[in-house]
Amino acid sequence: ERHMQELLIAVARGLVEDKDAVQVTVDPAREDGTVVYHLTVAEGDMGRVIGKQGRIAKAIRVVMRAAAVRQNEKVVVEIG
User: Fold this and answer.
1) How far is the C-alpha of 67 from the C-alpha of 52, rounded, in Å?
2) Exposed site from 5, 44, 51, 75, fewest CB < 10 Å?
3) Range of the domain at 66
4) Is the keyword DNA-binding assigned to this protein (predicted)?
């Protein structure tokens, strides 16, 4: 779980201007084992993290799901 949180932080910091504003909180695993990660960035960086038509956000979710599969986890990434 910690590894996944660090991965999400690293990806987000690579996209934003205000790297110090990047925060990730993690909810306890749901009954089905899914872990929800909440990514928060500075308001001015939201567009960089979401991308045109949500393409960047979708790519972030794909990377996180791929990493989760390697660790037998299910993840959801919420941005905002």
Assistant:
1) 24
2) 44
3) 2-79
4) no
